[in-house]
Amino acid sequence: MLGRCAARALGALRGLREGAPPARSPGPSRRLLSSEKVSDENHSLPKPCWSKDMRLLFDQFMKKCEDGSWIHLPSYEYIATQRSQDFPTFIHASELINKEKLSQGRLFTKSFEDGLGFEYVMFYNDAEKRIVCVFQGGPHLQGMPGFFHGGAIATMIDATVGMNAIVSGGIVMTANLNIDFKRPIPLCSIVLINSQLDKIEGRKLFVSCNVQSVDKKILYTEATSLFVKLDLEKKFD
Ligand SMILES: CCCCCCCCCCCCCC(=O)SCCNC(=O)CCNC(=O)[C@H](O)C(C)(C)COP(=O)(O)OP(=O)(O)OC[C@H]1O[C@@H](n2cnc3c(N)ncnc32)[C@H](O)[C@@H]1OP(=O)(O)O
Fold it and tell me: How many domains does the chain have?
C-alpha cells in the first residue's frame, strides 16, 4: 500500500510527464510539477548501455517493489516545460533568467549521451523515508585518472538527497551539502547511494547519505545535507 507522500511524489513525477492540468487550488509542488511539454523518455528504465550488474540490481529492486514497500521513481529530462519556465517566478528571480536559454533547459544529470555520464535509477521506501540510487557513472565523469570527479559524485549525492527531500517536502532547494570523500571511486563502477530523511524542522529537511560499493564492503563517501522548503510568499533580493 502506498503511503501518502510516496503517492504524491509519484503523482508529481507522472504529472510532469503526462501534462496533467493543475488542480483547482494547486499546492506548490502540483503547480511546479505539472507540465505541458516534456521529453517523454523515462530514463529510469533499463538501456543497452547499462552493465549486467546495473541491470541485475535494477531487477532486484523491482522485485522489492512488488509488495509496495519500495517504489521505482521515474526520471525525465524536464525540457522546456511550461511549469519549469514558471519556476523562477516562484523564487522571485524571473527578471534574471534568459527565457530563450531556459527553453533549452535540461536536467544536468540527463545531459550526457547514453552511457557516458550519469546512468541511475532511484527507489523510494516511504515507511523508512529513504531512497536508494543505483548509479553507474560513465567515462566522461573522470576526475583524477581512473576515478570519478568529486563534482560528479557531489552531483549524484545532491540529486539523491534532493529527491528524498522533494518527495517529503515538495519544492525545496539545497541550502547546505557536506561531503566526506573517504575513498576514490573507480571510474565506470556501479555504486549504491543510500539516502535517509533524518528530520524535518519547520521548512528545513535534513537528509544524510552514504555511497557504498555494491557488495557494501567499501564506504566511499558520506554526506549530510539541508534542504529548505521555498517560502512562496517571501521576496528574495
Ligand atoms: C520542473 C522541475 C522539476 C524538478 C525536479 C528535479 C529533480 C532533481 C533534484 C536535484 C536536486 C538539486 C537541488 C539543487 O541543486 S538546488 C541548487 C543549489 N541551491 C541553491 O541555489 C539555493 C540557494 N539558496 C537559497 O535560495 C536560499 O538560501 C534558500 C531557499 C535555501 C533559503 O532561503 P529562505 O529565505 O527561504 O530561508 P531562510 O534564509 O529564511 O532560512 C530558513 C531556515 O533555514 C536555515 N538555513 C538556510 N540556509 C542555511 C544554511 N546554508 N545552513 C544552515 N541553515 C540554513 C536558516 O537558518 C533558517 O533556519 P531557522 O532560523 O528557521 O531555524
Answer: 1
- Ligand 1 neighbours (beta carbon < 6 A): 32-33, 78, 81, 83-84, 158-159, 162-163, 173-176, 202-204, 226, 228, 230-231, 234
Atom 23 of ligand 1, nearest CA residue: 175
Say if 129 falls within a structural domain.
Answer: yes
Looking at this predicted complex, what is its ipTM?
0.96
Residue type, 123: F
CATH of the domain at 28: 3.10.129.10
Which residue owns the Cα nearest ligand 1 atom 42?
A: 228
169-215: per-residue pLDDT in tens? Answer: 998 999 999 999 999 999 999 999 999 999 999 999 999 999 999 99
**pLDDT tens string 24-41:** 233 333 333 434 344 567
